[in-house]
UniProtKB/TrEMBL annotation:
Signal peptide: none annotated. InterPro entries: ADH_Fe/GldA (IPR001670), ADH_Fe_C (IPR056798), ADH_Fe_CS (IPR018211), BDH-like (IPR044731). GO terms for cellular component: cytosol. Keywords: Oxidoreductase. One of its GO terms (molecular function) is alcohol dehydrogenase (NADP+) activity. This is NADH-dependent alcohol dehydrogenase. It holds the Pfam family ADH_Fe_C. Residues 10-177 form the Alcohol dehydrogenase iron-type/glycerol dehydrogenase GldA domain. Residues 188-385 form the Fe-containing alcohol dehydrogenase-like C-terminal domain. PROSITE patterns: ADH_IRON_2. It comes from the Bacteria. The lineage of its organism: Bacteria, Bacillati, Bacillota, Clostridia, Peptostreptococcales. Gene3D superfamilies: 3.40.50.1970, Dehydroquinate synthase-like - alpha domain. PANTHER family: ALCOHOL DEHYDROGENASE YQHD.
């Protein structure tokens, strides 16, 4: 096990009606908030009114910035930074999913920085300060509600890049599973794939003695798999929604990374799909993860056999251990299909003539991954396996 520091300062407020506590939670961070949200689901389903009421009751002045798109864009981040500076905003409240939260995080650091906020995504600047960010989560998926990362797309050149710092973890995140009852099936499914991917990025490590975190990863994956069909078939099943919502946070709050080095190649390879084609991140991962696994499984066959037998209940074949490993990958791919996710680039309308360009872009700042370092040609091969 590697040495590690673990601190996740995000306060999680979980359960029914908890959104009504937002004013009380936020007021310790000042009197003026930027209320940041997406394309309108919060207004359509009544959350917006409840939030405004709670903020007003706590005496908080609200400045609004809606319109965050999935795969959030740099131009809106810059607009938010301008507002924060000109209006002397004290804190930011993100009401939405990963896109809204990531946009809020970028606005928060940009408001405390004199240069171009894109510098953080290019690694040219380190986060030193941020406005405090609070969250009301509406879709379990990205785990941004307590993660140390933010992913932003620069429209010019369609670059989708991440930056991170423990300082950008939200101060609090309110998680009411009832708010997720209105999610379309496709978003629910994409969220499930994304949270599973966050666990698997951590699971496929070269560290050998990480039994506790292996078991935590496997257990969390199993809980997600067990509850997935219920949330798709019965969207208002509170108990299943609650399991899935808590799993999305656990998957990405870094507890499951302790003592091990994660891989993250699949995420970075996927970012080319959601950056260039604006596809849903989780759907892109459903295409890339099985292909990545097929490309790398021989690097540590026993880890893939462990994954297959413990997570997907594949019987161990002592005559053909490779079969066991591959059967685990196949069962995962079939599971993604059963959720209604695409599993090939063709399903997503991405043709072979773009593979070189996407692989080049994915490796522009160096090779990807830690389990195995992947160069441009490896990534082309992974896209071919995902054809
Ligand atoms: O915009 P509105 O109208 O709110 O609709 C949203 C959006 O269209 C809708 N939605 C959200 N909650 C709803 C709802 N519709 C009905 N009822 C509700 N309760 O869902 C759509 C998708 O929202 P989005 O925020 O884009 O989803 P998600 O949470 O999957 O976030 C994806 C983004 O997070 C990034 C991804 O790359 C992508 O840009 N990630 C961020 C990470 C992080 N910061 O740690 C890690 C992840 O790996 C990921 O990369
Ligand atoms: Zn993700």
């Amino acid at each position: 096990m590697l040495n590690f520091d673990f601190q996740n300062k995000t306060k999680i407020i979980f359960g029914k009606d908890t959104e009504n506590r937002v004013g009380q939670e936020l007021k310790i961070y000042g009197k003026k908030v930027l209320l940041h949200f997406g394309g309108g689901s919060i207004k359509k389903y009544g959350l917006y009114d409840k939030v405004l009421h709670s903020l007003q009751e706590a005496g908080i002045v609200v400045v609004e910035l809606g319109g965050v798109e999935p795969n959030p864009k740099l131009s809106l981040v810059n607009k938010g930074i301008e507002i924060c500076k000109s209006e002397n905003i004290d804190s930011i409240l993100a009401v939405g999913g990963g896109s809204v939260i990531d946009s809020a995080k970028a606005i928060g650091v940009g408001a405390k920085y004199d240069g171009d906020v894109w510098d953080f995504c290019l690694g040219k600047a380190e986060v030193k300060d941020t406005l405090p960010v609070g969250v009301i989560l509406t879709i379990p998926a990205a785990g941004s509600e307590s993660s140390s990362g933010s992913v932003i797309t620069k429209e010019e050149g369609l670059y989708k890049k991440a930056f991170g710092s423990p300082l950008i973890r939200p101060k609090f995140a309110i998680l009411n599973p009832e708010i997720t009852f209105t999610l379309p099936k496709y978003q629910t499914a994409a969220g499930i794939v994304d949270m599973m991917a966050h666990i698997m990025e951590r699971y496929f490590t070269n560290e050998q003695n990480v039994d506790l975190t292996d078991r935590l990863c496997e257990g969390t994956l199993k809980a997600i798999i067990d509850n997935a069909s219920t949330v798709l078939e019965t969207p208002d099943d509170y108990d299943a929604r609650a399991e899935i919502m808590w799993a999305s946070t656990i998957a990405h709050n870094d507890l499951l990374s302790t003592g091990r080095m994660g891989d993250w190649a699949s995420h970075n390879i996927e970012h080319e799909l959601s950056g260039i084609y604006d596809m849903t991140h989780g759907a892109g991962l459903a295409i890339i993860f099985p292909a990545w696994m097929k490309y790398v499984y021989k690097h540590d066959l026993s880890r893939f056999i462990q994954f297959a037998t413990r997570v997907w209940d594949v019987p161990m074949s002592f005559d053909d251990p490779q079969w066991t490993a591959l059967e685990g990958i196949n069962r995962m791919e079939s599971f993604f299909k059963s959720l209604g996710m695409p599993t090939t680039l063709k399903d997503a309308g991405i043709t072979e003539d773009r593979y070189e360009e996407m692989a080049k872009k994915a490796t522009e700042f160096g090779p990807q991954g830690n389990f195995i370092k992947l160069e441009k040609d490896d990534i082309v091969n992974i896209y071919k396996l995902a054809k």
